[in-house]
Amino acid sequence: MFNFKKDSDTSRSALNKSSRGSSETLKRASVSIGGKTMIGPTVVIDGNITSAEDLVVEGKVSGTITATGHEITVGEAGQLKANISAKIVRIEGKVEGDISAGEKVIISKSGDVLGNIDAPRVNLEDGAKFKGSIEMNPEEKPDIKAVPSAKADLFPSAATSEKSNVS
Amino acid sequence: MFRSRVENITAPSANFQDYALCTTLHSNLVAAALDSVHADKHLVVLDVGMAMAATVNFFSQFKSKLFFFDLYSEAFVTEISEDISHQELVSLFRQALNIPDNCIIDICLFWDFFNYLDGTLIKAFIEALQPYVAEHTRGFGLGSLNSRCQLPNSCYGLMANDTLTQCPRSDEQRPVYPHSQRDLKGYLDYFEINKSRLMSDGRVEYLITRCNGSQLVKKPIF
After folding, report:
1. Touching check for A121 and chain B: CB below 8 Å?
2. A150–B contact, CB cutoff 8 A
3. Contact assessment for residue A122 and residue A140, using Cβ atoms and an 8 Å cutoff
């Protein structure tokens, strides 16, 4: 197990230990573009990753990925057997593991998730595959019209359904 | 009464093959199944079908926990073995459901799952679900009125308290076991069909509640 901290000198040595690739491959294993660090599609990491910046994962990761206050994107080529924790988690690839986000989780149409999600908001796009549980706790309360305090107003069809059984 | 609209609801990002033919359905009974929905209450919802964007979006406005298990695709459902016992089936359903102990489900979205199970499997499924069901638990299902009715190979989502979305499943249509309402009532054990509505194409929508636990007025169905 190791911690991958992109902003520290230890990160490169840790990455080198895990990626097991050629030196040329290792040079391309992790790049930082526009404030985001990318773990390339040839990289295989078995361990824990802690990032203090946004992270894009296109490789294979087993373990955990934590980026508190930042965004983690699992790209289309990404394959994770890992628990993920971040501010925003965007899934375009395949994830087996639990996902926790401080703000939101987005599973795009190419995403495939097996696990449990805990986030204030979750956005599942049509075409996305998901199996597991989703725990949502939105900060904003829903419109009062959506609250069945006045059932007849909210669910007019429910009110009418009690009048007859077959239409 | 259910009525299918020809309105195309394909999202720009949708997978064309699966979602281009999605339609909306009007429901008179799903609202009653949502009776326990309240802004301040934490909802627990079981959806036995595929996770649909519409369903997640609908419940995203509430404090909620959604379970999506797509039981339609479980091997023990699709490849029925004659040798397997009732208790083994119950155990397989419990494993597939993977619901935490002491978790009580408020809303069960059964969709048309019962139509893909024979009586033996329905009984096992209902028994497997029992630890997670309370008096207030309500379910919503779709069925066929008789064996001559065709069931579309579809997955369903909840768009609003009176609107469903229906999309074609990408996998093959599996064998269908259409159950009469009388037979289905027999399989549901502690559940009962509280209300039902006929659809124009011969399908029926069901409001399912606990036996003797509902405060709704129960009337004869047919």
Report:
1. yes
2. no
3. no
The CA distance from A99 to B54, in Å, is 20
Q: Which of A127, A138, A157 sits opposite B14 (nearest CB)?
A: A127
Q: Hey, what are A29's tokens?
A: 């294993």
B171, pLDDT greater than 60? yes
- pLDDT (tens, 9 = 90+) of chain A, 167 residues, equals 444 444 343 344 344 444 444 444 444 556 666 678 999 999 999 999 999 999 999 999 999 999 999 999 999 999 999 999 999 999 999 999 999 999 999 999 999 999 999 999 999 998 899 999 999 988 755 443 343 433 333 333 333 333 333 32
CA dihedral B35, B116, B165, B149 (to 10 degrees): -100
Domain that holds residue B192: 16-210
Could you tell me if residue B218 is inside a domain? no
Contacts of A95 (CB under 8 A, 6+ apart): A74, A78, A80, A82, A84, A111, A112, A113, A114, A115
Give burial (CB, 10 Å; 0-12/13-18/19+) of B7. Answer: exposed
Q: β-pairing, A36-39 with A30-33?
A: antiparallel
What is the ipTM for the molecules in this complex? Answer: 0.84
Distance CA(A95)–CA(B56), nearest Å, equals: 19
Q: Are A161 and B14 an interchain contact pair (Cβ–Cβ within 8 Å)?
A: no
- pTM comes to 0.80
The token duo for A119 is 């986030």
Q: What is the CATH number of the domain that holds B52?
A: 3.40.50
Residues 53-112 of A with CB under 8 A from B: 108-109
Q: Which tokens sit at A52?
A: 């203090």
Count: domains in chain B? 1
- Can you read off the two tokens belonging to residue A63? 């373990």
Question: B11 contacts in A (CB within 8 Å)?
Answer: 125-126
Interface test with B, best of A124, A137, A140, A160 (most B CBs within 10 A): A124
Distance between CA atoms of B137 and B145, rounded to whole angstroms?
24
